[in-house]
Every structure is written in C-alpha cells, then in structure tokens.
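Review form for a predicted model. The reviewer records the input and the model, then writes brief findings.
Reviewer: anonymous (R2)
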Amino acid sequence: MFVSSGVLRHSLVSSCLLAAACGGYGDYKVAQPTTPSAIASSGGGAPAPVSSGYEPAHAAASYEPARPSMGESRVAEPVPDRPGLGTTFGESVYAPISYAPFQRASSAPWAEVLLHYNDAQGIEAHAAYLGARPEPLEVYAGDGSLAVALVDDAGRTLPGLSAGGRTLIVGEDGARYKIIVRNGTTARFEIVASVDGLDVIDGKPADPGRRGYIVDPHDTLVIDGFRTSDSDVAAFRFGKVADSYAAQTSGDRNVGVVGMAIFSERGAVWTPAELGRRDSADPFPARGYAVPPR
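Model under review:
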C-alpha cells in the first residue's frame, strides 16, 4: 500500500521520499499530470455573448437594436484575459523520490497554510483592498513548529506581506519558484500541497484527504513542481492566468493560491506546544473539596 507522502528534498537535500501507508487511508499511486500536448489541446472558458448593437443612453426603454441583415455576421468579442499571475507547467526538473511508511495521527490536519500570490501590481491592489501596507513576511504553521515560504530559483525567499488574515506573496512573470517547508521539531509531518487548486503530485483537483510529502525532523522539504514521474517534476513558473496549468486543465477559478494541509504522525509529537505543556506540568495542582454525587 502506498501513500503520496513523499519528501521532496531535492535542491537542498539529495533525494525525496514518498511514504508507504500504515492504516486505513486507502491505496495511493502517483499519477502522471496531463502531458503538455494534452494541455495544449484542451479548451477553456465560454465565448463572450454576441453584441446585438449599440443603444444610446437617451433611447426609450422600448428601443430594440437593429438585427444583422441577411448575409451579415457578427463576431463575438474575445474573452479578456484575467490579470495577474498563475502557475504554468514548466520545464522538466530531476527530482527523485523514494517511499517510507507514515501513519497520520488524525484524519484532520494538524495545521493549514494558505499563501496568495500575484504580481507586484496585483499585490498592491490586494493590499489596498485589505486596507494594509507591505511589511516583512514571516509564515509559520500551527504553533510555529514549521516555517513555510516560496523561494526563487536561487533559494531566496520571495517578498510579501501579511494583512487581514491573508499572506500575499509577490511573484514575477516567467520566474521559477519552489515551495519550502522547514521542520524545527523532532517529529515527522506529512504535507499535502496544492497550487492553483491542483494537487502537486498528480495535477488533479486537490483534497486534504489525499496523501502528500513527508518532511523529516529538523529537515527542509523542497517542492519544485508538479510531479510527472518518480524522478521528475514540471517546474513551477509564474505566468499569465490563461497559460497556467490549471486554466488549461480544470479551470482558472482557484488560480493564485498555494495551500498546505499538514498532518502530524501517530505517536508522540514533540512540538513547542507539547514541550511547553510538559515543562509547565504541576506536580501538586490546587486541591478542592469533594462534592456529593448527583
């Protein structure tokens, strides 16, 4: 039985790991995201309605626009491209994986992380919408045990801001990026990651119930792209929404967001919160008086 719990540690470490399941979470098989040729042949979006003519502002309510005469044809206006960035299905990158057992402590995520990304103009507009101004970006999961960031091809953390409960990251059209998860604990975690609403392992619509990558204790998980095989991924690259992998497969409704559902492993999880509880344990808690039975 296999699960999609694979530690993508290429770029910073030599290999990555997909975990073998232990427990009732179903079988897992790494699926191939749609090939570039298949993506290119898929369509998207509905055409704009055909214009039936011009109606002046002073026209009466009963005004009926002229209809095209016999032999005339009307050409529908093209659907305008959505502004901002999406994530394209980039070039092939060598990123081998292996398998290891992982059993979730619970079917519910231990923590969730949501990162919105866009170009600089889009981030400024989003920040204004939230009534905020850019500030240094710091993203932590749960009790701060795990740190999450988007980095460029050189490993530099991308700029962004946090405002109104949102984390906004600035990207650049054509630039490659990676998802980084740093584990500061002695426990392992499973990371189910999505980009533009698509699972990064098989390119299908994402679901936290699916399996993901493992990040080892005091290690860093690097997710380079959409997985295309046990040894390669299609790099994450910022691009126009119409060119995004999502827009050319399942639709662009969820373009512009990176999500992570983080699961702890069954057994002891030595997070700062757990260590804090032990450190503050009281050997003699306050004693009250016995109460009569009901």
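Findings: DSSP finds three helices and 17 strands in the chain.
Further findings: The helical segments are 36-41, 120-129, 272-279.
Recommendation: see findings above.
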